Amino acid sequence: MYFIANWKMFGKLSTLISLNKVIKFLKNFKKSNITKIIYCPPSTLIRPMSKMIINSKIQVGAQNCHESPTYGASTGSINPEMLKNVGAKYVILGHSENRGSGETDKLINAKIKSATKSGLKVIFCIGETLSQKRKKITKKILSKQIALGLKKVKKRKNIVIAYEPVWSIGTGVIPKLDELFGTINFIKKKVRNIKVLYGGSVNPKNINELKLIKNIDGFLIGGASQDPKKFIDIIKKTYN
Ligand code: PGA
d(Cα 126, Cα 198) in Å, to the nearest integer? Predict the structure, then answer.
């Protein structure tokens, strides 16, 4: 099972202390050999976090990257090589918050290619908006995002998909369990041999329901991942 913490635009150097609780918890955690824990802090914290998690079960990832494999005149951007250089092993791509500010499927595809080529593993986010759900075109949207996002991507073993319905991100609302089971199944049939995670308002309460969905390979956790207690709680309850 994957547990991925997406800190979004939160966190200072002093916030990193909170990680010690999780490191300590993982030391004695019986299921740690079947658990992958990935923290995606803002880029400013990738390096110091990487130093903290040496000898722990935690890996570090970035929240986005530029599509260029080389250096270039692109103010404010960071390419995959640069992220790797400071300790990132993963990168989140296609997050709806970035799609919402103009990232197209084509751009996401270029980023996925560039990231996998440089050896980063990719957490590829897909998901429908509320209006698309109401129009009952979820499957069509997901199919398109998958087809265009993974177009001509060869190294698929380094990709996991996070299904994140946009209407459930940060809202406290999660999909109906049977619906979610069906959607995850649908995605798995499309991509075969790629792990599929769920993301959107995962918290220590609803994890008791979410864990019942047997085809989910893990969770992408935003808000609740900023609180080490909640994050640990989610991990523990998943296996209970
Ligand atoms: P949330 O965010 O858990 O706060 O809903 C999830 C995400 O955006 O990855």
Answer: 10
